[in-house]
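batch_manifest entry 22 of 60
target: TMM8A factor
source organism: Chordeiles acutipennis
requested by: lab member K.T.
priority: normal
notes from requester: please return tokens only, no post-processing; we will run our own comparison against the previous entry in this batch. if the run fails, retry once and flag.
--- input ---
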Amino acid sequence: SLYVSEYFSQSAQKLSFYSWYGNAKLFHFHVPEDTVLLRWLLQASRGKGPECTSMEITVHFRYGAPPVINPLGTRFPVNATVRPSYNISITLSSAVQNTTFVNVTTPAAGDWFIAAHLPEAAGRIEVKGFSTPCPYMFQADMFVLRLTDMPVLEPGVAVPQTVSPAKPLHVKVFIPKHAARMQFQLRSCVTSEQKACAVRVVLGSITLPQSFQRIITCTGSVNCSLALDSPPWEKWLQIMVESLGAANASVSVEMLASFTACRPGSTSAFLNFSSLNQSQTGPRPGSTGAAGSPTLSTGEASRNTSHQRSFCLQNQPVVREDLDVVSVRYRLLNGHSVPVHSISPTLLLLNLNTGMDSGGSLVVSLLLNKTSVNLANATVVACVSAASPVLSLNATQNCSTAFFQGYPLSVSTSSAEAMLIVLYPQTDDWFLSLQLICPKGQGECNAAEAKVTIFAYLTPCFNDCGPYGQCSLLRRHGYLYAGCSCKAGWGGWSCTDDTKAQSVGAQNLATLLLTLSNLMFLPAIAVAVYRYYLVEASVYTYTMFFSTFYHACDQPGVAVMCIMDYDTLQYCDFLGSVVSIWVTILCMSRVKKILKYVLFVLGTLLIAMSLQLDRRGVWNMMGPCLFALAVMIAAWVYHGVKRRRCYPSSWKRWVFYLLPGITLAFIAISVYAFMETNENYYYTHSIWHMLVASSVAFLLPPRDKHKKPWAWSQKLTCRYQICQNDREELYAVT
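--- output ---
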């Protein structure tokens, strides 16, 4: 045998603390056919700074689709099927780097996915630039060992093979479409030393998180056989045979694979078209059933029943309609309602094998028409499975195929509705099998028929993540998948877990606190207007307006009001906040008016540019603050040297205005930078609003001495007033 090794690598990704699926870093690989050994090389590393501590990295594996994970222990939506992912933990303690190997023998060919993430996020809101987070990096590489000349078993032909003592034998057989059963036989087992034969046979490949390999052990000269019901259609099945005998003895065997075909029927489609024609031309006398629906006579029903016995399934034509990215609707050509019988299952094909369908949620909904069921205790049993359909629902009602555990559904007259949600369905052909089951035996169901309305579709996020979530489309290279980002304390895969959800009253309170706290700018605006700082008052009014409506639009719950685009509101709020600090400090410096207004305009333009480059950068606020403080200190020193005394010279100005204003500003900065978390944001950020606005009212300097106070009574009333004439009269003496 000729083995070929191949190596696949992807670039490293920076890991994040987990709060929703978007924090997990996804790696997508494709395992080629005839792979007998798969080895993952997992490399994790961290930075060397003092902020880097011991960390545990969780790595999840899954075949066919991204892994469904639940690190936070939240609830999944009702009717969702969840099977725990296979995962390992990698610990970074004293070592800066950790290398881990994961081996998978005889892996399934196709798409494999790896997702890695850090533990749950602490929820602290960090200002960008105030602290340097430790970088944790993760990289996954894949080594495969592939057999280039794997022997092929032909159906019905016995093939002699020799098993080497130190190397297992790998063969494969192609399973055709509509194969209902596969029979594998191992016979004529003889060792080179003419001793008792002992071999182990493994059928199928490993798939994670669940693997359904079938293993048989053959000893002696007795023939071994294994039957597989519903093997995967149109796929290669790997068979591995290894010797359990002496280390130096080879084994000769004969292998035979045979299939039992399933003859599909399409009479149901013809009958539906006939019913459609009857409904258009009018029913014949005596052929109208309950609710005016056309039914078949007793003779026609018996002929159809005998005709169905010759088929093992009844196909229903389904059209796949692509709507958008990870969005597909399945439309039945004969209408949403399909007939279901007891003789053979009704089968629908749901095509999800494009390679881009596994990043959403497959939703299957069944609705039983109660008037169509003649038997009160009859039940329609359904099964959703991948790779091959379930063809024996009437015998065991076991929703499983040879290598896949399906998802069962059932509807009856007592429970007429059923829904199934498959999260991240694996890339494959999916099948929906339906069959009518009677509690007293199938004899009473032979002439019965049930009408079931079926809705099947693929959606990026189930129910669009609900009212408390946002469906986000994520991308890893060319692969797209979707995830829900929850808000207002809601959690879960589809934001349906209300364990920590905020009540409507709490949401209204948060909105009121964050918006009404901006009214603390009114005293600052009044002080600025009273002291003739009209430009500064205009900036404070702008900041108060946009901060109020930005936080009204930024709320996670139902108490939301957006007067314009969210991004515009956020930009205007950030711009107004930084410019307010800028003009306040420059106003305190008491420079000449022409210079002050030049700095106002120039600084505002530079701040607008920097916010466009990086809106959340700490230097967007710190840079203008430090520069304005430098201008203010230089101006104060200049005034102090010129007057030969401390500036400002009044101790009352320091005690009652400057020191309280500076104290409020420092407390506000401390709250903003070090105390905000996701849980306390609505009141800590409200405190930030009130403290900053109050500090502005204290820090604004008094008006110029030549400026007289506003004479509101004289300006707002109409009456005569004595005007002072300051002009000097010049007299000429002749």
